[in-house]
Each structure stands twice: as structure tokens, then as C-alpha cells.
């Protein structure tokens, strides 16, 4: 495969450069027959794939069919208009995190983690908190100066708020994997509202949520301080906590506080392609 020439306008690559060929998969609520494949092609055409072909069709019980469709997409991508979210804090090593916590807070940084509602999938919160960590990085339990309380799965919002108050948590990390009917959004908005009600203004813990189906830019909408998406590492979370909670000058004692209503949002910028 030859290296494509630099361009700000690109198209998908399938069999040849710039041919616009893409592959999509979806399920239709119809039994598998010729009419079902015709329905899949009709949907592909409305999605802008022309021509398109069904390269795979498999029945999923008597009333559903799973399709893979291959076709040419007419749309272009303008790299000058691609909007990405910039990380607003530097990545720190575990030693740098521990040193910042010791210098600024002069006490352990207390972190609580949980999966709330009916969500029983702890793989995400465990990856961030447990000492075994994720992607070659140890979790927050391995950080000197960070006190971790992993509450596990299916924690109710009232219990989470109570534990946060009892443990005097600096930060609350919530992982949500179950997303059917936007359960993750409902759970998080309920959680953030409960913390606002339970704490005086400006004293609530830093609220962080994460999961594979969250939008990084939706923190204000959800009422939380930060949203992390799939692929986030323990080091990124730890660095963010230092950024939010350890900003006081060296030697100054004090408890990190969530600045509800005046949260500093990560910058959303337009990435421009640069010619080399």
C-alpha cells in the first residue's frame, strides 16, 4: 500500500486510494430472505452508499437479520473542520502525582469509585482503580498518597453520596457500561443532582464519569466535572485529579473542592492538517 499524498480533503479507502468504499453493519427486524436483503440495500442507499452490495447476511432468530454491506460513499472529509477535544492538563508520572498530592494537600487524596444503578460491569472502574491497572499502567491503588475506595457494582446513588460524605471524598469516579435506553445518561444526571442537593455549593467532590458510550463534551449537560471515554488510562485520571485538586501553592493546606457552576471545561479545538 503506497502512502497517500497530503491533502486536507480525504475519502475512505477500500480497494484503491480515494474510491470511497466503506463497510457497515446493522440489524433489521425482519426474517432472512430476499426481501430482507433488498431492505438492507434500500437502507444503504438512503445512507448514501451507491452502489452497495450485501456481503454478509445472517438470521438472528426468526424475526431479525444481521447484515454487512459494502458500498461507495459519496461524502468527503475536510480535515480542516475536524473538531477534537484537547487535554487541558499535563500527563504526570505516578511519582509526580504523589509529590503533588503531598505538597498541596498534605494528606491522602480520597477517591471513591463505583458502578451505579443496575450496572454490574466493573471492568472499567477496576482498570482505573485496581493496582493491576490497564494498558501497562498501575491503577490508583498503587499511587502513594491516594486513598482508594472501590465500592464495586450496582451501587445506589443515595449509598454513593453517603459513602462520599462519610469518607470525605475528594473525587467520585463512576463507570457506566450499560447503555440501553440511555441508562448511563439517566443514571449520571440523577447522581450529579443528588450530589448538588447533598453538598453546599462549591463543596461537592469532583465528579468524574467514564464509559464507552459517553461524549467527552457532555460534562456540563450531565452535571459532572469531567467525562472520560474508552481507552482512558489510570495515569490520565490521576493527572486530571492533580490538575483539579492540587492547584494550591506549595505549603498551602486545604481540601480540594469541586467548583460547581464554574467548572473549567477542556478546550474544544479544530485540528488543521499541516503539510509536511
Mass-distribution shape: elongated
- Provide the helix percentage: 25-40%
Number of strands: 12
**β-strand amount:** 15-25%
Low-confidence stretches: 248-264, 272-276
Strands in their spatial order, largest beta sheet: 8-7-9-10-11
Radius of gyration: 23 Å
Largest sheet: 5 strands, parallel
Number of helices: 7
Could you say which structural class the secondary elements and strand pairing correspond to?
A: alpha/beta
Provide the succession of SSEs.
EEHEEEEHEHEHEHEHEHE
N- to C-terminal separation?
A: 20 Å
Q: What's the rounded overall pLDDT mean? A: 87
Write the layout of secondary structure elements.
Elements: E1 9-10, E2 21-28, H1 34-46, E3 49-59, E4 65-73, E5 77-78, E6 82-85, H2 94-104, E7 109-114, H3 123-129, E8 146-150, H4 157-167, E9 171-175, H5 183-198, E10 206-210, H6 219-222, E11 226-228, H7 234-245, E12 268-271
Parallel strand pairs: 7-8, 7-9, 9-10, 10-11
Antiparallel strand pairs: 1-5, 2-4, 3-4, 6-12
